[in-house]
Amino acid sequence: MCGRFTLTTTPEQLRAAFTGLSVSDEIQPRFNIAPSQPVAVVVNDGKFQVDYYTWGLIPSWAKDPTIGNRLINARAETLVEKPAFRSAFRRRRCLVLADGFYEWRQEPGKRTKTPMLIKMKSGLPFAFAGLWENWNTPDGSNILSCTIITTEPNQLMQSIHNRMPVILPENAFPAWLEGREGNLPQLQPLLVPYPAEALTAFEVSTLVNSPANEDPRCILPIA
């Protein structure tokens, strides 16, 4: 799964990394992004701009928005089967911007888990494959929400966790952000593990265990 991630990259660095991206200069660094919080997304509306959606998908048919707490991730293998995701997979896809994600490694013979931060070796930001929804509240307002798609682990992640988020290469963005109903046979092959050789992983402080800790210390390697 993917339950926590980072986006510490500056607006200038985001624009340099993602050609044509429109992003506000007001974007703030985030060291410990958690479910139910706003996350930076680019939705398939043709604008290629950063907006903020709540992390935890609320399907349009949901009667209670708290369902989003259980839908922070969507399994790539079952998107076309699950009622919560199949419509969004066809019509409402997005990129979720990040520059690292956390996972907790189970240590042999220990009850505790070790927090790990996984990043690009290049240090550059990247984009998770995501889905989004617009939920109408009883008072007539709406909540824009999203989920991150996960897949099987690559060789690096196998020793850390049995799932990993789908990271899309930039050449996949046009197909993923197509505004019309998507060509699912074309999209499904994009939802694969990112090459292990492009990523690095290292142990970080247990400060990250609490979403209350939004602090640069969360991303520092443990010596």
What does this entry look like structurally?
This protein has 223 residues and is mainly beta. It has one domain: SOS response associated peptidase-like (hypothetical protein yedk fold, Alpha-Beta Complex). The protein has helices spanning 11-17, 86-91, 173-176, 184-187; strands spanning 5-7, 30-33, 38-43, 51-55, 73-75, 93-98, 100-106, 113-120, 126-136, 142-151, 164-165, 167-168, 199-203. The strands form two sheets. The chain has a five-stranded antiparallel sheet with strand order 2-1-7-8-13, with no helix packed on it. β7 (100-106) and β8 (113-120) form a beta hairpin. The longest helix has 7 residues, at 11-17. The two termini are 26 Å apart.
Order the strands across the largest sheet as they lie in space. 2-1-7-8-13
How many discrete structural domains? 1
Number of helices: 4
What gap, in angstroms, lies between the N and C termini?
Answer: 26 Å
What helical percentage do the residues reach? Answer: under 10%
Global Rg: 17 Å
Number of strands: 13
Question: What's the topology here?
Answer:
Blueprint: E1 5-7, H1 11-17, E2 30-33, E3 38-43, E4 51-55, E5 73-75, H2 86-91, E6 93-98, E7 100-106, E8 113-120, E9 126-136, E10 142-151, E11 164-165, E12 167-168, H3 173-176, H4 184-187, E13 199-203
In short:
With 223 residues, this protein is mainly beta.
What labels describe this entry?
mainly beta; five-stranded antiparallel sheet; five-stranded mixed barrel; 9% helix
